[in-house]
Specification:
By secondary structure, the protein is of the alpha/beta class. The chain has 11 helices and 10 strands. It has 2 domains: 179 residues, Rossmann fold, CATH 3.40.50.1100; 82 residues, 3-Layer(aba) Sandwich (Rossmann fold), CATH 3.40.50. Helices cover 41% and strands 16% of the residues. The strands form 2 sheets. A 6-stranded mixed sheet has the order 1-2-10-7-8-9. Strands 5-4-3-6 form a 4-stranded parallel sheet.
Length: 301
Amino acid sequence: MLLQPLNEPAAQRAGVRLLLLRDDLTHPELPGNKWRKLKYNLQEARRLGYDTVLTFGGAYSNHLAAVATAGRLTGLRTIGVVRGDELAAVPPNPTLARAAADGMALRFMDRATYRRKQEPHVLEALLRETGPAYVIPEGGSNALALPGCAELVAELQTQTAFDYLCVACGTGGTLAGLLTGLHHQHYAVGFAALKGADFLRADIHSLTQHATGYTYTNWELQTAYHGGGYARLSPALRQFIVEFQQRHGILLDPIYTSKMMVGILDLLEQGYFQPSSTVVAVHTGGLQAWAGFGAIVPLGV
């Protein structure tokens, strides 16, 4: 586990030690939080006797890419249900092409049905078509995702003392897992990558309640740093990513960690973090998403 100091002027002015936890470097093919969320789900699939995993995601989903890779590495068959049946008629984008190359069978679902994918009769109909499969929800966020994410906290505590732990949020599973690992100690701050993500507070609460029975109060969800919405890469955010890479030699992903870093630096300027505290931000990976943003990308992609 690599902790990289970020000598940002905003942190210096705030009197805060800012560190970036490079979880994007933990595995050559399955870096970051996606593997942590899958770890115990894949073990459970094996325990229950399944040889196939079925999951859901959008056209550029980090989760679909991770499940496909995990299937190749573990010998499990994988099925990816992709949002948007119109995508079946066009050549696959780099994310879906990579998932297919890793052995994932892609199925395309119309958007209206996709919104109802969690309804029992929709899922039952899907499984009648695909055959038996262990189902992992979109984004990988369920009770079994939490212990894998909680292990990050234990690993971090062997490296440094800290006061705040910051992470980007899509479905909320990673933040929920970190909360269970923090055991009411320290403070967690989530940064929503989606516009209109207030619903995530209830989802995170539900995940932690189901997994541990506890109500955690040592956390906050920041919803103002979505950058225009999920998978929206504004010129300003792209420029921030380029300049951050020039300063630190670290490439951020365009959907999650970059937005978190924008938020952290803004909160530092606002005096959100206590002076003399240590703030650890988690780089959760997701660099494969750059393939979906055209030819003009930062160095190293």
